[in-house]
Design brief:
With about 350 residues, this protein is mainly alpha-helical. It folds into two domains: about 60 residues; about 220 residues, f41 fragment of flagellin, N-terminal domain (Up-down Bundle), CATH 1.20.1330. About 60% of the residues lie in helices and about 5% in strands. It is built from eight helices and four strands. The protein has a two-stranded antiparallel sheet. Strand 1 and strand 2 form a beta hairpin. Helix 2 packs antiparallel against helix 3.
Length: about 350
């Protein structure tokens, strides 16, 4: 190869290597400082696309985890009130039984009834309990199958939902949890977890003036023989529906009514427990998915510190070597000057 002054090929080639090695050194520094293998799309376009989708799925699942956790909290608060309601119903049954004691005078019975009425009012207050503004037991005035004061020709006119939908996974699959209908469960003679079917059957069986307010009293001139009334004390009739009392007619109350009401509450608690267990299993599943998706995404985007540290040392040596050789190549023109002397 000839010796020239205008073009220093050796210096040019050494400069190219110096630039490439310096770029690689900068890339290694970027990766180690960010902790990511992919610092720009050009590093791994396909891997970046997969990573973005995995990150999105992880975020959706994290939101789903929060939803499920809040639903579990809702049901746990609900169950706490149901447990107290069961204790109250048991006490009310005890009071009713003690009031039939032949040794009790009218003052004693009045005292029992005063406590009974206080407990009944407490039960009513429980049915209106809310969790962050959401009715735990359904809104008596709006929710289907719950005590209400107005209605059209059929219960179907009352269309408000008595369930809450919980998103269970990233695809949007939902699971319905119930607003346990505590008020309905306290109606004498009603069975089932929600009681709405039994109420609807009783209402539609009545003639004109049917019981659209679900108080089990026929408002027509002829009273239905199946009227049971709501839980109240010792056969008296009242007009205060708001306090879980009958609105008139004959009270067909028996001691077995408290057993039935307690069984209804037990069914509500069992339903609640089953729903909580379902949500807990799904929460565990979602948390596992979040962990695994995070690990999968990490294998795509996270830098291997050990390997990249070794690469950094290599690039540092190459940069220093290429810089030295560029300097040496630039001195090759001295040979041409020596020939010209």
């Amino acid at each position: 190869m000839g010796i020239s002054i205008n073009t220093n090929v050796a210096a040019t080639r050494a400069g190219v290597y110096l630039g490439a090695n310096h770029a690689n050194l900068q890339k290694s520094l970027d990766r180690l400082s960010s902790g990511k293998r992919i610092t720009e799309p050009a590093d791994d376009a396909g891997g970046l696309a997969v990573s973005m989708k995995l990150e999105h799925t992880g975020k959706v699942l994290r939101g789903t985890s929060y939803n499920i956790s809040n639903a579990i909290s809702f049901l746990q608060v609900q169950d706490g009130i149901l447990e107290s309601a069961g204790k109250i119903v048991s006490r009310m049954g005890e009071l009713q039984g003690m009031s039939t004691d032949v040794t009790k005078n009218s003052t004693d019975i009045d005292n029992y009834e005063a406590e009974f009425n206080d407990l009944r009012s407490q039960l009513y207050d429980m049915t209106k309990a809310k969790f962050n503004g959401v009715h735990l037991f359904g809104d008596w005035k709006t929710d289907a199958g719950v005590l209400q004061t107005t209605g059209a020709a059929t219960n179907a006119a009352d269309t408000a939902d008595t369930t809450l939908s919980v998103v269970m996974d990233e695809s949007g699959t939902t699971f319905s949890i119930h607003k346990a209908l505590l008020g309905v469960s306290l109606i004498v003679g009603q069975t089932g977890a929600q009681g709405a079917t039994a109420l609807g059957t009783a209402d539609t069986a009545e003639a004109a003036g049917v019981d659209y307010d679900h108080d089990k009293d026929d408002d027509a001139a002829t009273a239905a023989t199946t009227d049971a009334g709501l839980i109240k004390f010792s056969g008296t009739t009242n007009t205060d529906e708001a306090n879980l009392e009958d609105t008139g007619g004959t009270d067909h109350f028996t001691a077995a009514a408290f057993t039935q009401a307690l069984e209804n509450i037990a069914t509500l608690r069992a339903t609640n427990g089953g729903q909580v267990r379902r949500l807990q299993y799904q929460l565990s599943n979602v948390e596992t998915q979040i962990t695994n998706i995070g690990a999968a995404n990490g294998r795509i985007v996270d830098v291997d510190i050990a390997a990249e540290s070794a690469n950094l040392a290599r690039q540092q040596v190459l940069v220093q070597a290429s810089a030295a050789m560029t300097a040496q190549a630039n001195m090759s023109n001295d040979v041409a000057l020596m020939l010209l002397r």
